[in-house]
Design a protein that fits this description.
By secondary structure, this protein is an alpha/beta fold. The chain is about 45% helix and about 15% strand. Strands 3-2-1-4-5-6-7 form a seven-stranded parallel beta sheet, with helices on both faces. The radius of gyration is 17 Å and the shape is globular. The relative contact order is 0.15. It starts with 6 loop residues before the first strand and ends in a 6-residue tail after the last strand. Bound molecules: NADP nicotinamide-adenine-dinucleotide phosphate. The site of NADP nicotinamide-adenine-dinucleotide phosphate has 29 residues, from helix 1.
Length: about 250
């Protein structure tokens, strides 16, 4: 499905899943903002690749946990690139720790990026979507937000919060023609999995019904569908892309 003049913003496009999502949305015809925070080299490489293919893209930087940075970024995007139609809240962090070892700082950072970040971004784009009476928000949650992970209580709580926020916001903005959904990945082969040893990954794969890690592109296909007009009657839902882990 090809769209012209539809602006998408992908947070964390400098990372594994965000990069794959940005590539797919460009193929779908979205003019795409490639957001990053610290990994400027990665996002510039992606920007060059997509520009060479003839796609209209721009990069934008913000720490999503800071509302002032997010508000300034969205204002800049709206003025210089166009009014956002699609927001993919993908930026996120992970950490494995025993519950009693989680510090105040760990907790606040996790909630700040993974949950407050989704709030900050969604609130900043909302006036543009309400004004046009159309828009789509897709939040990248996690299977651990659905079923909970041992040694990832703060991560699981942040992602459960994202799923709850998605349902509530979907109800509130549906009358304005705006859809809000989650894509909930399982274990996907990106930098985020780099702290796992080969043995850990092999053990994890034994628990996954489809027997392997997911690929970032497989998450991107789900985002592409929910962003499309084919999903026009779907809102407030969580689409799991987890190889069957949450069955
Ligand atoms: P990744 O490769 O580590 O990418 C993470 C992205 O988040 C990076 O682009 C990073 O930007 C951005 N980010 C981190 N902190 C930020 C902040 N304070 N402000 C703005 N951006 C920030 O991880 P990934 O695997 O692609 O993960 C993407 C999303 O999928 C996350 O929400 C994650 O929780 C979710 N997810 C991943 C898996 C998995 O197995 N990989 C499973 C379930 C869910 P910079 O590098 O530019 O700072």
């Amino acid at each position: 499905m090809i769209y012209n003049n539809r602006i998408a913003i992908v947070t964390g496009a400098s990372g594994g899943i965000g990069g794959a999502v940005a590539r797919k949305l460009c193929e779908d015809g979205f003019d795409t903002v490639l957001h990053y925070n610290s990994s400027e080299d990665s996002v510039r490489t992606l920007e060059n690749e997509l520009k060479q293919k003839g796609y209209r893209v721009m990069t934008a930087k913000a720490d999503v946990s800071k509302s002032s940075e997010v508000n300034d970024m969205i204002e800049y995007i709206a003025k210089n690139f166009g009014s956002p139609y699609l927001l993919v809240n993908n930026a996120g962090i992970a950490q494995q720790k025993l519950f009693t070892f989680i510090t105040d700082e760990d907790w606040n950072k996790m909630i700040g990026v993974n949950l407050t970040g989704v709030f900050n971004m969604s609130r900043a784009v909302m006036p543009f979507m309400v004004h046009r009476k159309q828009g789509v928000i897709i939040n990248i949650a996690s299977m651990w937000g659905e079923v909970g992970a041992s040694c990832e209580v703060h991560y699981s709580a942040s992602k459960s919060g994202v799923i709850g926020m998605t349902k509530a916001l979907a109800k509130e903005v549906a009358p304005s023609g705006i859809r809000v959904n989650c894509v909930s990945p399982g274990a996907v082969d990106t930098e985020m999995m780099s702290s796992f040893s080969a043995e850990d990954i092999a053990a994890l794969c034994e628990e996954i019904p489809l027997g392997r890690l997911g690929k970032p592109e497989e998450v991107a296909y789900a985002v592409s569908f929910l962003a499309s007009d084919r999903a026009s009657y779907i809102t407030g839902q969580t689409l799991s892309v987890c190889g069957g882990m949450t069955i």
